[in-house]
TrEMBL record:
Record's compositionally biased regions (Basic and acidic residues): 1-18
InterPro entries: HSP9_HSP12
Annotated segments matching region Disordered: 1-27, 42-79
Name of this protein: 12 kDa heat shock protein
Organism: Pichia inconspicua
Length: 110
């Protein structure tokens, strides 16, 4: 059972397992609005003002949201590390080519 104005677990589950291709534009818009309201209500309602099932549901949702943030942050970090590695590799190749060119030019002057 959900607290007043909140989505219960079975409603959330039903929305998640139904493919978007089977939802109307109205259903998608309604889900978006009710999800936003539910998250806001979760944030402003103190834990002691929630039913046990709502506390569990909110905890699961927070864990999911944190996992999404963590994955996004990890992806960003991996991208930055990749950029750095490519930059370092390009600098290394440039130094090797420059060194080889300078070595060839000094040998040519002898």
């Amino acid at each position: 059972m959900a607290d007043a104005g909140r989505k219960d677990f079975s409603t959330k589950l039903g929305e998640k397992v139904t493919p978007d291709s089977q939802k109307t534009a109205y259903d998608k818009a309604k889900e978006g609005l009710t999800d936003a309201y539910d998250k806001a209500a979760s944030a402003v309602t103190p834990e002691d003002g929630k039913s046990f099932s709502q506390q569990v549901g909110d905890s699961v949702q927070r864990g999911h949201d944190d996992a999404q943030k963590t994955w996004g942050e990890s992806a960003q970090e991996a991208l930055e590390n990749s950029k750095k590695a490519v930059s370092e590799a390009a600098e290394y190749v440039s130094n090797v080519v420059t060194g080889a060119k300078e070595g060839a030019e000094s040998e040519a002057k002898k």
